[in-house]
Design brief:
By secondary structure, this protein is an alpha+beta fold. It is 20% helix and 34% strand. The chain has a five-stranded antiparallel β-sheet, covered by helices on one side. It has a two-stranded antiparallel sheet with strand order 2-3. The structure holds iron/sulfur cluster.
Length: 88
């Protein structure tokens, strides 16, 4: 079975750098009008403050890259099974 992860994005703290989209354009969209990024996957749970997406190994490395280039480190990744923080 594929390992799963939870991406937790603190949208309310986005400073609009757009680096996430640059790192992983298939997964992240940076809206130039609102200066806020958003997860592209339609399975994403969205509120005004936060976005949560369950991913598996197939996109893990790319989401990790997006998280690592975010200058304010508001894209967190957790191991879904253990709940352990993978990043940051
Ligand atoms: S890299 Fe971080 S601060 Fe920049 S748009 Fe993406 S989430 Fe927002």
């Amino acid at each position: 079975m594929m390992k799963k992860y939870k991406v937790v994005y603190d949208k309310s703290s986005c400073i609009g750098a757009g680096a996430c989209e640059f790192a992983f354009p298939e997964g992240w969209y940076y809206d130039k009008e609102t200066s806020i990024a958003t997860l592209k996957d339609p399975a994403t749970e969205k509120t005004d403050a936060q976005e949560i997406l369950i991913i598996d190994e197939s996109t893990f490395e790319k989401h990790l890259e997006a998280a690592q280039v975010c200058p304010v480190a508001i894209i967190e990744i957790f191991d879904l099974e253990t709940g352990k923080r993978v990043y940051p």
